[in-house]
Every structure is written in structure tokens, then in C-alpha cells.
Amino acid sequence: MHLQTTYEHRKGVNDVTCPPPQRGRERGPALYFDNNATTPLLPSVRAAMSEAMETFGNPSSVHFCGEAAAALIDHARAFVAVLLACDPEQVVFNSGGSEGASSVIVGTGLYHLRDGGHFITSAVEHPAVLRACEFVRELGFELSVLPVDGAGRVDPGTLQTVLRPDTRLVSIMHANNETGAFQPLYALSRVAREAGVPFHCDAVQTAGKERIGLAEGFVTISGHKFHGPKGVGALVVRTDAPLQKLIFGGEQEHDRRAGTENLLGIVGLGAAAGAARARLEDPNEQFRRKSIGDRLRAGLSSIHGAVVNSPTEGCLPETVNVSFEGLRGDTIVDVLSARGVAVSSGSACHSAHPDPSHVLLAMGLPADRALGAVRFSSSCLTRRDEVDEVVEITEQTVRQLYATWRSVGTA
Amino acid sequence: MHLQTTYEHRKGVNDVTCPPPQRGRERGPALYFDNNATTPLLPSVRAAMSEAMETFGNPSSVHFCGEAAAALIDHARAFVAVLLACDPEQVVFNSGGSEGASSVIVGTGLYHLRDGGHFITSAVEHPAVLRACEFVRELGFELSVLPVDGAGRVDPGTLQTVLRPDTRLVSIMHANNETGAFQPLYALSRVAREAGVPFHCDAVQTAGKERIGLAEGFVTISGHKFHGPKGVGALVVRTDAPLQKLIFGGEQEHDRRAGTENLLGIVGLGAAAGAARARLEDPNEQFRRKSIGDRLRAGLSSIHGAVVNSPTEGCLPETVNVSFEGLRGDTIVDVLSARGVAVSSGSACHSAHPDPSHVLLAMGLPADRALGAVRFSSSCLTRRDEVDEVVEITEQTVRQLYATWRSVGTA
Amino acid sequence: MARFSDEIIEHFTHPKNVGELPEPDADASVADPVCGDQVHLTVRVGDGRICEARFLAHGCAAALGTASIVTAWIVGMGPEDLARVDEATVTQRVGGLAPGQSHCARLAVEVLHALADDLRTPQGSE
Amino acid sequence: MARFSDEIIEHFTHPKNVGELPEPDADASVADPVCGDQVHLTVRVGDGRICEARFLAHGCAAALGTASIVTAWIVGMGPEDLARVDEATVTQRVGGLAPGQSHCARLAVEVLHALADDLRTPQGSE
Ligand SMILES: Cc1ncc(COP(=O)(O)O)c(C=O)c1O
Ligand SMILES: Cc1ncc(COP(=O)(O)O)c(C=O)c1O
After folding, report:
1. Residue B62 and residue C76: Cα distance in Å, rounded?
2. What is the pTM of this model?
3. Whole-angstrom Cα distance, residue A339 to residue B64?
4. Domain termination site, one of B255, B279, B303
5. Does residue B268 fall inside a structural domain?
6. How many helices (H) and strands (E) does chain D have?
7. Where a domain ends, among B232, B264, B279?
């Protein structure tokens, strides 16, 4: 496995992806703009994983088969450590972002079960963090959920006032999965550090896209958000704050997480980390990334009825969250899907009762605007012509939906 | 993906495996007899996983990419359900055996945290079960660790007497990973059922090799023990006994286990389950399996100084645990590894102080016999000539080690 | 199981009979108080049977598709036919509805029954 | 990092000088009370220097390999040379020892020092 500037392989996801819908008239190539949900494997990641299928030892076995497997894991660990600017020993491989966040929050809670205490998080976190925090509240801890401003950001001053001597953990994300809004991570983590409180950053949406130089605390990342495989991630532990283990058994991962390692997944995560690091270091790629993002945002915001929910400044370029006034986001997602465009609605709705996104509501958006939200998210594989095409198909779809329901604003 | 009688592809692991040791004089093909630690991927499993790399949607996404991914998971779930003779909805995919066991034991403990109570396990369980049980004891529960007889078996009558009205869970394995000894699973589970106590069976060593028709309770399986990938497994939930979730986030796996699914791993597990089911239904394969096992046991037990620790009856044919009197198991493992033979010592020793296996000690073996234990484990890929070869190399190695230290029994 | 039948997909991507008929012979509007979906139908009648129908709708994609299918389907029906329509018939006609989409059939039945009532109401009373 | 040097692997798979010399000029036995490893050396001496050595050993593979290496290495040494051997020298001579194997060097040093003492002891006192 070599550090590859894998974005050379950019072909659009069309070549490597799930089939576009087989029904409806539109059978053109798929347009995948749901990269915040998950990303396709890079060719170099696939190659690394395919090659690793030859190696099958249990990394804990002392014989030669075990050594070969352990070497692959060490190699991957080194790549992840470089990406996260930490020591390899600080990388704990796990099954992804939800496990990472749960292991820190629940693990901290269980460690302090007898003495109790206080947790802090924000109103715009991913359910992995919010649900885990609600669970520690059920365990008897107090929980403060910090509000956000109109851009979705937590005020470090507010964190300062809410911190208590018995605060066990502050958990705040790096960038939001629905809007792309960055938190003032360094200011927030400094406030926690100065109070001597462990800090956890859910960096699932930024790992592989942004530098994360957090010098202290816990960082959660997930491979499938930056072209690695699904079901594998890492927790970076840059603190001596104690955690209760949640998964018991052997002493894998420096005795922090038991279970025979997900060898292929870890190899894929390592390869994805290597490729991500190369992109981060390449000014051309960084320029391209921002110009794709700008083009997407400009195109979508020019559509009649569109209002952009992602903040203008301090936002992941890959994420454009936009509401179409008077329309329903879930409907737009379904119609676009039938037309070969994969996007997501802000709300994770699986029923006839779409719930408006807790993130957009926390930002102060009215419920019907939140219900009209659609998230478009690009990746390093997204091409310029795909951006133009997605804007055009979205424009047509939105126009059709407005025609089906009188006019903007009457809904 | 098709149900394949994949053992047609049997070529010996030599063709698909990690390189034999590069040093020492012996560079012949590797002899892999550590299948209880982990197994190589079947060709059909590799093929299914490679094909699934084309599909990358997030199974929770409502659009066409998500649907394609969800369909792969449904397909795999159906194969696992057939193997375990349960409903697909009862299959909860997870990251492997350690998570499975921890999720049942810790999940039961956390659910009953306020009311407390009692847990029962056996002295010969895998560390995943034992450590998780020790943790619930730390949480304030009482724990009974049932003794075993000389064959390593728990007496159902003993279970009966230890059960209490407030027993929250009985966790007993199907077959032991070190010796292959079966527990009287149906008798034990019946005792628990009649007392109305939930039963958990760690079937990691039997899934894919034996039929597991447990009609009630929880069953833990792990893909990499039957030629699936590492880091993926399933918990089968055939009970309405409540569990506290440990990994929070979305509502994946019927809201029992959050996190974006390990798509490739699950596809591999499904393919391995399909192939295992075909082997189970094939009388020739069952005959072959037992004759390979018998040959291995007969060969090893004929070596001067050998004494077999695996019980003669009621034992997985794939497992032969044998002690060489006066020698150290870890030394034999290292010398065999240098000769291209992968086996494991009973003790999971990583230091200069080998600990005798807790399983062999619980069976009443003296410590030095336990320290002399070596586990040989075959799989459906093991060939007859490999068995003969491993016996021969082991015989030479043991002879050499005896020569290095006077004679049997003087150590 | 796919979330949408081919029929529904075809109709929500290419809806037929969108809009309002000017001076319709009958019309009906219904709304689902729970999910907020709304349908508005206008029809023209000849010989006691519907000869043209248009819809406007707001809601989930299945509701839009169902409304479009309905406008084509009811052409040729009289008030008695409309009054006999039930949810099972609609569900079958649209090629099936996934769990969580049954409100679409309910809404269609409601709007057709309301339309039947409107058709039966003497012209003058409008 | 591999658990064993190539040198150690070669020697524990093909140990040299295994056994006991009949009527040796000197011998020494040591045991590690913690890990239980044991080494027994017998040597023959000519001109004040070791000209032949044999070992018996029980313990981990690294200890066996080290003992075998030592029997070849000490040929040509006198008691003063043996007495000067330290753990660093042994570790280097065997091609390195992994963490947890340092007892092998300690054991080798102990047995060589004991051998030096035995060599220095006047013959008659044996
Ligand atoms: C911000 C954030 N945190 C956590 C997660 C959970 O990660 P995973 O799906 O890998 O468990 C996600 C994505 O689903 C996310 O976007
Ligand atoms: C009996 C038994 N239970 C549990 C496990 C743990 O499974 P995993 O390594 O998949 O976490 C193993 C194997 O390591 C095992 O043999």
C-alpha cells in the first residue's frame, strides 16, 4: 500500500457505483450527492482490501500467519495516526462513528457510575452522541445540552458558564452532518481543557476532509465518510481520562476494545486515510474542492424558492443544505432518486410523519422550512459536470413540484 | 450470491494464505492448523465481497443507492437466518463474538441496573463472556461461575441448584474454543427456560460447523470462525428478554444496534453462512470432517509424550488439544511456526510468564500439563495430506525438544 | 421490497393532469390532519360520467403519484362508482403502497367520496 | 518487529551442541525462578580455553535458541572472557531479543558466569 494521490482516479462515482434506478424514464448515470451519508470506496482502497484478502491470520496469533495480519494492522494504524497527527498507540480501531461516540460517552459514564456528575453536549449533535448522552442521563448523570446560534454554532462563553467542577465530559462535534457548519472547535476544547474536563470531538464529518489537530481529548472518526469501508472507524485517545471498556474479551487495541480485529476494514480505513492525507497536502485538490462546493451552492441557491440553510462562512464546502419553501424535502429526495439523483432530506424520516431536523430547529428555523430541507453533499470524486447536472435536474424537479401545488408559499 | 458447495474449492489454505515463514530452512507450504483462532475466507466469500464493493450506498438512505445496499444486507440476513434456523428479524449484525457476548451480558446488566440480581456462567467460557460477567459483578450483580467436570462440562443439575428467582441471565457456550468440548446445551437451556431465566449461548466455535437449533434465548456467532471475514458477527435474539443497547445512534438492526452497517463484512458473513449451510446438509462433507478430525487426533496422540486433553466423546472434530508432558506448549508453537506450521498454545501467552489455560485448570489438569498444551484445529479446507504432514513435523519437533531437555518427565 | 411501485414512480416523476380545470363541474379538497398531505381535484362531467380531471397536491411522493394516477383512473366513472371506491381498490390500482404510505389510499378515497357528494349535489346549490 | 531474530530461529529449529559432555572439565546449571527456564552447560577445556560445549535447556523458544548460540560462541573463551560477558553482549550476539525475552540474556549471563567460577575452581575441589 502506498500513499496515493488517488483523486487522480476520479472518474465520477458513476463508474463504480450502485445502479441508477431501473424504472421511470430517466436511466442516465447516477448522480451521487449524498456523500455525507456515505462515500464510495476509492479504487486504491478497493485494491488494498482485495490484496489483504490473501492474509487471513488472527492478528493476536503468535505464529507467522498472525504476524502477517498484525503487520497489516500496524501499517493501517500508522496511516490513521498521520492523518490525525497523533501517535499510533493513540488510535483505537472500532466499528465506526456510533461505536466511537458511544464508547467515549457511555464509557465515561460507566467509569464514574458511583460518583455521578455532569455531561455537556450540544443541541446539533448526531444521534450517536445525543442518544448516548441521554443514556448517561438515565444512568443518573446531569446533562446540559448547549444551544446554538442561527449558524448552528455553540458559543464558547456559554460552555464556560455551564462547566462544573464535576463535569465528566464535553462532547461537541467538529462539523455538522446536516449543514456542514463548523463548531469553534479549538476555542471550545480550550475552555474544557482549562477547566480540566475531558473533551470529545465527533469528527466523523471532517476526518479525511479537514485537518484535525486537536492536541488533547478524544476524537471519533468513521472510515466510510472518506472513501473507506463502512463499519470501521477509530477513536483517537489523546488523554489519560479513564474510560470503562464496553466490549470485553481479549486485550486487542491496547486493551481498550476487545474482539478479533476487522482486518479488511482496518486495511481499507488505513488506505483511505493515506489517500485523504495526500489530498489534504495538495493545494490543487483543496482549490478544486472549494470550487466544486461553491459551484454547487451557487447553482442550488439560484433555483426559484431555494433558501440555503448551511452557513456561508465556516462550513464544509462539501455540504449544501437548502430548503425549498413550501415543498417537502422528503418528497424532493424521492423524486430525485427516481431520476437517478441521490441526495438526502434533513430529516431522517422513514414514515408518513416526517420530523423536522433537530439541527435546523435548534438553529431557529421554522418547522416548515426545516421540513423543506434537502442536503446535497459532494466528495473528492464529484466532477464539475455532475454539479451542473444535479443543479439542472433539481431545478426541473422543484419547478414540477411547485406546479403540482399552486405556487411558492401557498402550501 | 448463490448457495455454493464451496468445499469443492478446497485447495488447502496454502494457495490463498499468508506466506510461510521466510526464515529458517523450512520454506515449504504453510500448514494452517489454527482454525479455532480464525479461518481463511472461502473463495465464494471473497467473490461475494469483491462484487459488493460495487455497491456503496448507506443502507439507511431512502434513495436507490441506499436500497441497493439494504438489499445486500437483507440477502445476507436471510442466509444467516437459515443457518441459525431463526427468523431474519431475529438476526442482529454486529462486530463479532466479543461484541455479541458483551452486548447480551452487559446489556442485560445495564437494563437491570436499578434492581440488581444474579448472573450465571461457567468456568470455561471465552474471556469475552468471563470479562463481561466480571464487569456486571462490578456493577453490583452477583455472579455464579459454574465448575466443570474433567471433560470440561457443566452439569445441568448444578445449574438447577444455582438458579435464583432474581437470576437475570445464564451464559454458557456451545463448544469450547480450546478443547472443542460440547456443553449439554439443550439440557442447560431447558433448565434455564423452565426457571424463566434468559439464556445466552456463545456459539462462536460451533456456528457454521454444527446445527444450533436453540429455540429460545440469545446466540452469539462470529463470521471469521467459519470462513467469513473478521470483525463481523451476529447476535440471534429469540427471546423478548430486554437488553439495554450499548451502541447508540440510528435505528439500524431493528433499533438494537446503531451505526452504519459493515456492508462488506455482512455480505461476507452471509456468503459464509450460505456455504456453511450447504456443508451441514451434505453427508459426504460431514463424513470427511469427522474422518479428518479422527486422523488428526489419532496421529497426534501417537506421538511419544502426548496426552490428549480434548474429550473423546462430545467434542468438535476440528479441535484436538494435546499436551506433551514435560514440554512447554508455547515453545512448541514457536518452533512449529518457524517450520511453517500454525497452531496455538492453550494459553494466550504474550510474555515470558505463560499462564496455564483457565479452561484446562478448570477441568482439573495440573498446571504443568496445562502449560504443555497445544491446540490443533482443522477446517473444511484441511486436506488429509496436510494432517499427515502436520503430525510428522510435530513428532520431529517434539522429539527434538525432548532431546534438548534430557527426557520426558524430568523437566 | 421497493418503497414505490413503478406506477407511482412514473406518476410522481411525470404527473398527469396537473392543475385546476376552469369552471369545473365538481371539485373536492381533503387534507390529512396527521401527515399534512393535501389533495384538490377538479372534474368535468358529460353524460353523468367524468370526462376530465385535474389535481393539485402537496405531500409525500406517494401521495402525489396516487393523485396523478387517480385523475386518469376516474375518467368514465359516475358518482356511484366514485362512492364505491375503497382503500384496497386504490392500493391495488397504484401498484401497492409500502407500510407508512396507507394514508395515500385513505386520502384518495376521501377525496373521491367528497367528489361523489359534490356531483350528487344539485347544480343550483353550488 | 518480529518476535525472534533469524539467528535465534535457526538455533531453536536446528539446535547445535545438544546434550551433555561425558566427564566435562566444567559445568554449570541455572534456572530462572520466575519463568522457570533452565539451562545446563558442560564444557571441555584445552590450553585454558573452551574447546567444546554442550547444552540442555528447558523453557521458551528464545531461551533454547540462546543456549544453542552460546555453545558455539564460547568456544575459544577463557574464564576471564566468560566472566566479562554481560546481557547487552548476549542480546547483540543473538540478534536481538523482543520485550519479554530479556530473561534469556540474563540466564545466559548467569550460566556463563557460573561456568567461569567453575573453571576457576581448582580441579581437586570438584
Ligand atoms: C457527525 C456524525 N457522527 C456520527 C456518525 C455515525 O457514524 P457511523 O455511521 O459510522 O456509526 C455519523 C454518520 O452516520 C455522523 O455524520
Ligand atoms: C468461544 C468464543 N467466544 C467468543 C470469541 C470472540 O469472538 P471475536 O474474536 O469475533 O470477537 C471467540 C474467538 O475469539 C471464541 O472462540
Report:
1. 36
2. 0.94
3. 10
4. B279
5. yes
6. 5, 3
7. B279
Residue type, C48: G
Chain C positions touching B65 (Cβ under 8 A) are none
CATH class, range C6-120: alpha beta
DSSP-based three-state secondary structure for A212 = coil
Cell of B57: 450506498
Going from the Cα of A346 to the center of ligand 1, the distance in angstroms, rounded, reads 14
Cβ C72 vs Cβ C34: under 8 Å: no
Binding site membership of A35 for ligand 1 (Cβ less than 6 Å): no
Same domain? A266 vs A287: no
Domain ranges of chain C: 6-120
Of the candidates A57, A97, A128, which has its C-beta nearest B18's C-beta?
A57
User: D35 and B411: CB-CB below 8 Å?
Assistant: no
B385 three-state secondary structure: helix
State the complex-level ipTM: 0.93
A267, A399: one domain: no
Confidence of residue A18 (pLDDT cuts 50, 70, 90): very low
* A126 Cβ closer than 6 Å to some ligand 1 atom: yes
Closest-CA distance, B70 to chain C, in angstroms, reads 10
Q: Say how many C-beta atoms besides its own lie within 10 A of residue C48's C-beta.
A: 10
Contact of B289 with B318, CB cutoff 8 Å? yes
Burial of A53 (0-12, 13-18, 19+ CB in 10 A): buried
Spatial CB neighbours of A304, under 8 Å, sequence gap ≥ 6:
A395, A398, A399, A402, A408
Q: Which domain holds residue A246?
A: 45-279
Which listed ligand is nearest to B96 at the C-alpha?
Answer: 2
Minimal C-alpha gap between A178 and chain C (Å) = 21
What single DSSP character describes residue A14?
G
Mean pLDDT of chain A: 91
Q: What is the mean pLDDT of residues B100-117?
A: 98
Q: DSSP per residue over B391-407, as a string?
A: HHHHHHHHHHHHHHSSS
B100 CA → ligand 1 middle, Å: 21
Task: Dig out the grid coordinates for A20 from the structure.
Answer: 441508477
Residues of A in contact with C11 (CB under 8 A): none
pLDDT in tens, D54-82: 999 999 999 999 999 999 999 999 999 99
DSSP B184: -
Amino acid residing at B406: R
**Residue A123, number of CB atoms within 10 A of its CB:** 16
Q: What is the CATH number of the domain that holds A85?
A: 3.40.640.10
DSSP per-residue string spanning A202-238: E-TTTBTTB-----SEEEEEEGGGGTS-TT-EEEEEE
C-alpha to C-alpha distance for B392 and B379, rounded to whole angstroms: 19
Q: Which of B326, B339, B404 sits opposite D64 (nearest CB)?
A: B404
Judged by CB atoms closer than 8 Å, whether chains meet at C100 and A352 is answered as yes
Q: In which element (H, E) is residue A159 found?
A: helix A156-162
Q: What is the mean pLDDT of chain B?
A: 91
Tell how far the Cα of A111 is from the centroid of ligand 1, in angstroms. 24
Grid cell digits, residue A309? 440553510
